[in-house]
Amino acid sequence: MLSPAVFETAAVDRAWLPQQKRKDTSTVVELKKGETVEILLKKLHLRADAVIVMRGSTPIPVDDALEDEQSLQILQVASGG
């Protein structure tokens, strides 16, 4: 089993509320060795097509295997016309 990883999820649940103060939240998720970003998103009940997972300033694909002690940021995808 991998060590816990911390994921910043503030943008996911509060990005669409610009008039309210955003409360930063962190969630610790335990994953087995070799599990992917896609599995992480399923555990967090998030759709892969609705978010972007970032490692530092780099987006990472859903089929990327996660490593020990990672800190990731999950951003909600927004589009409009």
List keywords for this structure.
Ubiquitin-like (UB roll), 81 residues, five-stranded mixed β-sheet, alpha+beta, single chain
Polypeptide structure, described:
The protein has one domain (5-76): Ubiquitin-like (UB roll) (Roll), CATH 3.10.20. The protein contains two helices and five strands; from the N terminus they run E-H-E-H-E-E-E. The chain is globular and about 40 Å long. Strand 3 and strand 4 (58-59) form a beta hairpin. It has 81 residues and is α+β, with helices and mostly antiparallel strands.
Approximately how much beta-strand content do the residues carry? 25-35%
CATH superfamily placement: Phosphatidylinositol 3-kinase Catalytic Subunit, Chain A, domain 1
Q: Roughly what is the average pLDDT, rounded to an integer? A: 76
Q: With helices defined by DSSP (H or I, 4 residues minimum), what is the helix count? A: 2
Which architecture would the CATH scheme give at its second level?
A: Roll
In helices, the fraction of residues equals 10-25%
SSE series: EHEHEEE
Measure the end-to-end span. Answer: 44 Å
- What's the CATH class, please? Alpha Beta
Short description:
The protein has helices at 10-14, 37-43, and strands at residues 5-8, 26-29, 51-55, 58-59, 71-76. With 81 residues, it is α+β, with helices and mostly antiparallel strands. The protein has one domain (5-76): Phosphatidylinositol 3-kinase Catalytic Subunit, Chain A, domain 1 (Ubiquitin-like (UB roll)).
